[in-house]
């Protein structure tokens, strides 16, 4: 298929939900040459494939019609023209990188990884929080009329915090929700997103990808340097100034004291091997720091 050239450079932030992609998007978008889509737009990516049971859309699902629609709709949502960067961060894209690259073969990808314990704590905490009405209405403004079925699912899912699915829908998440604790499902969600992205990024030209650790992002200026070089940003003063105002260190230990030893043992079985492979170390048990009461 011959792609019609875009007027902008597409850049996608890839990462599990609550890995810091919003923080990174808002930070990078400080630059005036970068146009961001200000929220996740999974409903746009799913257009034409609404009935597929999970978000890991195979590359062959990117038909000519889907490709034309996405290449037109996303830059328009970002108002990205005249050579500027279109910046987008839908977290479900971690499960479908080949699909994303079939639509946008010229894209650059920044893969953000964060300690799974911090991610799981954050996802588990916000899962049951109701979606603000103004946020739902803002997103619904951008729903394609022909995608009304997904819009209906989105509203029904967000109105039922007890049974709703929050974040990327990996293959098997519905079955897991019926048999596992919510905490364990959060662990599986992180693993699926990170492992799938790591696998699929191996086949991407390394010149078009950048790996970033969240912990390095908030603590090492060299990480900002690498992002600026990767995006070819000439004036990074605004980004560095905003970084100094945005960063809040000491937030990644919230998971300590949240769970019982039994819950921690369960998490160790799920996320422990990947944590160690990524260099974060195993899930540790500390009876003085973990609750004795049970939760979801």
Structure in words:
The protein is an alpha/beta fold. The protein has a single domain (9-277), classed as P-loop containing nucleotide triphosphate hydrolases (Rossmann fold, 3-Layer(aba) Sandwich). It contains 13 helices and 5 strands. It has helices spanning 21-28, 42-45, 64-78, 97-103, 116-126, 133-140, 148-159, 173-179, 182-201, 214-217, 221-230, 237-246, 261-277; strands at residues 9-14, 34-36, 85-88, 108-113, 209-213. Strands 2-3-1-4-5 form a 5-stranded parallel sheet, with helices on both faces. Helix 5 crosses helix 9 (182-201) and helix 9 packs parallel to helix 13 (261-277). The model is unreliable at 287-296 (pLDDT under 50). Keywords: Transferase. This is Sulfotransferase domain protein. InterPro entries: P-loop_NTPase, TPST-like.
């Amino acid at each position: 298929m011959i792609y019609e050239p875009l007027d902008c450079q597409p850049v996608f932030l890839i990462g599990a939900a609550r890995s810091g992609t919003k923080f990174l998007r808002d930070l990078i978008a400080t630059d005036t040459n970068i146009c961001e889509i200000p929220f996740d737009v999974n409903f746009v990516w799913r257009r034409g494939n609404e009935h597929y049971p999970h978000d890991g859309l195979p590359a062959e699902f990117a038909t000519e019609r889907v490709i034309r629609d996405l290449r037109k709709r996303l830059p328009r949502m970002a108002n990205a023209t005249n050579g500027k960067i279109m910046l987008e961060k839908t977290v479900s894209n971690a499960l479908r990188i080949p699909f994303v690259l079939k639509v946008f073969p010229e894209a650059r990808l920044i893969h953000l990884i964060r300690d799974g314990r911090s991610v799981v704590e954050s996802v588990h905490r916000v899962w049951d929080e109701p979606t603000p009405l103004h946020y739902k209405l803002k997103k619904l403004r951008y729903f394609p009329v022909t995608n009304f079925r997904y819009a209906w699912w989105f509203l029904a899912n967000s109105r039922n915090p007890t049974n709703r699915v929050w974040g990327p829908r990996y293959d098997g998440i519905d079955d897991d929700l019926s048999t596992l604790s919510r905490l364990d499902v959060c662990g599986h969600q992180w693993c699926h997103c990170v492992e799938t992205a790591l696998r699929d990024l191996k086949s991407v030209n390394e010149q078009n990808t950048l790996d970033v650790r969240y912990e390095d992002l908030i603590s090492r200026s060299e990480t900002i340097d690498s992002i600026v070089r990767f995006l070819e940003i000439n004036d990074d003063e605004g980004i560095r100034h905003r970084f100094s105002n945005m960063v809040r260190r000491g937030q990644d230990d919230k998971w300590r004291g949240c769970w019982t030893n039994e819950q921690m043992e369960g998490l160790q079985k799920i996320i422990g091997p990947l944590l160690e492979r990524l260099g974060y170390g195993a899930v540790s048990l500390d009876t003085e720091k973990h609750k004795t009461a049970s939760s979801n």
